[in-house]
Amino acid sequence: MKKKYPKIYPLIFSFVLILQLIFFYYIKYLNQGLTLNEFSFNNIGNIFNLVVILCLIIGIVFYFKRKHHDISSLMILMVFSTLTLFITYLLTLIELPSLEFYVLGQPGEKIIEAAIFTLYQFILFVSISFIWLNALRSDSTAFSKSLFNALGMSSFFLVITFVFILTKEYSSDNWSLTKSDKNVAVVLGAAVWSDNQPSPSLSGRVDKGIQLYTNKFVGSILLTGSNAPGEMSEAEVALEYARERGMDMEKVRYESLTTSTSEQIKYIKKYLINNENINDIIVVSNAYHLLRIIEISKFFNINIKVAAPNSYLNYKKKLYMQLRESIALIVFWSFAL
Length: 337
Description:
It is a single chain. By secondary structure, the chain is α/β, with parallel strands linked by helices. The protein has 2 domains: 2-167, no CATH class; 174-311, Rossmann fold (3-Layer(aba) Sandwich). 58% of the residues lie in helices and 8% in strands. It is built from 10 helices and 9 strands. A 5-stranded parallel beta sheet has the order 7-6-3-8-9, with helices on both faces. Strands 1-2 form a two-stranded antiparallel sheet. Helix 9 links the parallel strand 8 and strand 9. Helix 2 (44-63) packs parallel to helix 4 (108-136) and helix 5 (142-167) packs across helix 10. The longest helix has 29 residues, at 108-136. It is elongated. The mean pLDDT is 88.
């Protein structure tokens, strides 16, 4: 009977990994209030998740072709990845208390969720390295090497994402837009400075929205964005700025509940996409932000257009924002956060 175990183990491990993948997809879509009925491979993140699991399954097949197997280490990795995935599921069901700290502009509760998701992905990277090191040759130090290799893989994908952002910045020239009073400009929120003053990013986005309206590319503007404690919301500050700029306020609406780009895209999907009085939805944000907006929209299976103000960023500021977007994009691709 003992000789049969190696034959059934690859099937068991592969089956568990397939279940993990399906469950992980379910969690990703649940986290955004969607169901698996909306699942699509027209999304880099979903393809990435699939490739990771395929690397593990193929590695397991080769791993068990060898005579000697470190089953205990493999089982430990599988148990830890499953437990971590289950914890991520619980986090989607439990509303974490608001934490008064931000990292890269993201609230603390989101950072905690992202950290648990990242741990799950890290365990998968460790597993890939461990399995393939042992599949190619017996290596008593495979586990310790796999920890370093997993860090290397994480860094590699971050660099690839950074290069992707550098080479795929979307143009927002007006020639790509169609003039219509049924178009809507959705201006995404940005930082509010002291005394409820709009930051240059926020004022630039509002100015772009007004420009689109003035040039008849849109017939109305929607301002979005919530607030930090003790401040007016980003949308309210943007509204006051638009009023000061002489905008026709009958053509401006705002919502002040959304706190992130994904929530704002979700708002668009829920309230604007199926509105028969709306043709094109033009999302307005800074150029470095547009790629992530497009990728999030693909996840939600909605078609939008984008536009950006002609704002200037010095080299250091632009590099910082692109690095921040790289991290945010790879987190969204991987976990839909």
